[in-house]
Design a protein that fits this description.
With 473 residues, the protein is α+β, with helices and mostly antiparallel strands. Helices cover 21% and strands 34% of the residues. The protein has 7 helices and 25 strands. The chain has a 6-stranded antiparallel β-barrel with strand order 3-4-5-17-16-6. Strands 9-18-15-11-13 form a 5-stranded mixed beta sheet, with no helix packed on it. A 4-stranded mixed beta sheet has the order 1-24-25-2. Helix 5 packs across helix 6.
Amino acid sequence: MFSVRGRGVARLAAATVVSGLVAAGAIAVAGPALAEDGADGTGGATATLGKLTVFDTVKIKGKGEISAGLFQMQATPGGTLQTYCIDLYTGAKTGQEYKEVGWDQSSLHNNANAGKIRWILQNSYPQVNDLDALAKKVGAKNLTEKTAAAATQAAIWHFSDNVDAKPVNKDAKKLTEYLEKEAVNLEEPKASLSLSPSSVAGKSGERLGPITVDTNAASAAVSLAPGAPAGVKLVDKDGKVVTNVAKGGQVFFDIPAGTPDGAAELKVQADTTVPIGRAFVSTKVKSQTLILAGTSTSSVTAKANATWAKKGAIPAVSAEKNCAKGGLDVTASNEGDEDFNFEVKGQKVTIGAGQSKTVTIPLAEDEAYDFTITGPNGFEKNFKGVLDCKTATPGPLPSETPSTEPSVSPTPSAGTAGGSTTGATTGSTTGGGDLAETGSSNATPMIAGIAALLVVLGGGAVFFLRKKKTAGQ
């Protein structure tokens, strides 16, 4: 089964089906249905986009003025992230979930200057927080948190969106010019946490794996997700039960002989700092792509799964965005003794016994996808997301008005391009109605308002019926 939804439909549907998903959750756990794509495999940090908190005014040549600086994001389940924008012409939607990804899964995948953006992040605010020393280095008289943030964002846009962006503040302009001139290409930072592979399969009575854990944390906690069949354990290569692994550690699913056909999920969690320069993309709707500029210690997670059966096809399936090819790579393997057949968006795929194959599902830029691959013994794996691999085509600057109050709640107004620094002085806009920002969508409050109205109408109907019944009695 495969379906692709437009962005407008996906946004409305997301609000409509929440209660249905909650109700279905208990049913999904009962069978070998596996988790949808999310922290699966690629792992890393997930966070909710908050407000623009440290910003000042930047002028985009030929376009006008815009507020620019740092966004604050709240990591899940804990920690604070600060980000800049690397997608000028796309609005930022406050309250949306974001996921840490490699450059190959973002608009940086074909940007020859991506490494220069990382250099800017390492050599400017907030990583360099001695603003007096920074001002002296660039020949400026005075730099504040908000003017330094605006200057840094302007320099990043020069390399991410190929625009001429300059702060209106004269001292900040000197910082931008310095960063653009001195920037050199640095290597891409590695993921804070990843698992390879993210899906394994085999027969009961075997150890399924290995799954290799790569992290920059000292160690990571490993556990089975609730619902795993009795007797299934997580072990190392020697069969010893494991609860923690270090970088490069390997984990196996130990499936006792005679265990009924089924599936289990592995969760890995680590408390670490996400490397500066990691990209963050929205997981559900089109929203401005961001890049990490500052971070506290955050909890990051990754998931992998295993399926097993006594005979027949025994599939393992994973998926990953492929920005170079403009689609989604679906990798399937078959550890059984019969062919595994499935169809995705008109493509019929056959995986022979003991074989594996990767197929690329073509998708349009900004296209939302939602498809489920099914197999024998109730096998089911769902993948959802949106293909976001390019910066938006140059056009009018987004025009929402930012809020200066840090928040992670969906609101009608939001900030522009960036992230934020904990405890930093908040900036403010200057000028008036002509000032543009890369802001959030007003769709979320509208949907919330409709939902609230439906609740009121439903309550009123119940009251009316009760009153009518009482009168009849």
